Amino acid sequence: MSGRIRHRLEPPRWPTAEEAADSRLFSPVEIGPIHLTSRTWVPAMVPWRAEESGEVTDALLEWYGRFAEGRPGAIVVEATGIRDIPSGPLLRIGDDRFVEGLARLVDTVRERSGGRTRLFIQLIDFLTVKRRPPPEKFLSRFLRITPRHRERLSTRDARDFSAASEDEVRARLVAGDDDDWRAVLSPREYEDLTYGYRERVTDLHLPHVRALPETLPPLFAAAAARAERAGFDGVELHFAHAYTMSSFLSRTNDRDDGYGGSRGARVRLPLEVYAAARAALSDGVALGCRFLSDEVIAGGSRVEDAAYYATRFAEAGMDFLSLSKGGKFDDAKIPRVGHAVYPYTGPSGHECMPTIYSDERGPLGRHLPLTKHIRDAVRAAGFATPVVAAGALNTFDLAEGAIADGACDVVAAARQSLADPDWWEKMRQGRGEEVRCCALTNYCEGLDQQHKQVTCRLWDRDFSAGDEPMRSWDGKRRLVAPPWR
Ligand SMILES: Cc1cc2nc3c(=O)[nH]c(=O)nc-3n(C[C@H](O)[C@H](O)[C@H](O)COP(=O)(O)O)c2cc1C
Ligand code: SF4
Prior knowledge:
The protein is an alpha/beta fold. The protein has 20 helices and 12 strands. It folds into 2 domains: 5-126 and 216-461, Aldolase class I (TIM Barrel, Alpha-Beta Barrel); 135-195, no CATH class. The strands form 3 sheets. The protein has an 8-stranded parallel β-barrel with strand order 4-5-6-7-8-9-11-12, surrounded by 7 helices. A two-stranded antiparallel ribbon has the order 1-10. Helix 10 packs parallel to helix 13 (268-280) and helix 14 packs across helix 16 (368-380). It is globular, with a radius of gyration of 24 Å.
């Protein structure tokens, strides 16, 4: 984004209890078979609190329990891996052994919200992303030496490398500099060197990537069935950000096997995944997806693509459409050696989680013109599917205005709910002055980037909480928001 300005967040106006009671925000809405008592929603946020084995922990129960105390209409549990593969402390649902822990999560949210909050779970698939390697390691071990390297080195050095041993070629590359690597490596190899190896859905030379249209629908379906067995009210298919399903929807997807190229081909696998998951669920469970209103990358999908996808999803019978924006690998910053590329560091990442360092429009409500366009398209096509919007919707007036203007039916707030999980209840009770307002500076996102337990910077400034909270491993940070006194 060009010309970032540091914005000052004005103290918001808060409603009285009567105004909140009469508001659209605090009116009920049906998400397919599921009744929400209000149009308030905590979207998926990975807190890095699961076991290394992907199981639910006490810290995770506490994380969701604390959100439940604010009694939003719905909480969506973080992106949860559908495969039974080691994924670090990322929550998983790729085997029946995960059901028991997830059922405890459901019980915790029921109990701590007094039965008012419905619980959804976000199902994710992702492809391999490796850490950025040290150049010597990449050039001497990972790079596959091809005739092209020999040819280019020969031109560059005016010396014949055609018969040189592989060790000689590698030694020459290791001794080289960035200019040499740019000139000699293919663009993809250079990217693997500077960002770390990353699989794409367009890597059809990889058999497991070519087979995704066959492997993913049953994996999502099995995960959805487990979510129902654990007692979840709804399932959100993760078709957003930098991950597999979003990459199928992307305009950059040029697969030539009927699952890339045209819009109709790009939406094919997401629709097949939806159909498989739907068939695995009973009628009482809501099923929808989260996808992007705009990818915010060069050559990526724009709002017209998203409006088309939304209409196709609604036509297929999805119970809700949750919209996000950006958050792609394609424009992410180069990571440090030994670190993995993080999809929220570039311009598309800023659009996903806007901060006070923004352009003249400022961070608040930036997604709404797009969500309105998409919702209008869905309504024009004759569907009443509820649309969930996010993106710095941190005040009552913004949230209420978004629903009144037809930009969405349900308001999602991630970071504001993290800063103060009670903020929904404080607004509802006319006690908005007590809300701990999110500063939109993304300390929490920085922790997510490092796969550290996510917390809010503001929590540790509240010294009067008087409780003994769970703490991060170094004892320095609260792991739970201070209680509302
Ligand atoms: C720490 C953190 C983790 C997140 N994890 C997820 C995730 O698992 N799935 C997802 O769809 N979005 C994720 N998001 C994005 C949020 O759901 C939300 O779309 C984004 O923060 C913008 O909303 P906000 O301005 O209300 O924070 C995450 C955001 C944060 C801050
Ligand atoms: S850490 Fe900063 S951006 Fe994140 S929730 Fe807290 S105040 Fe908001």
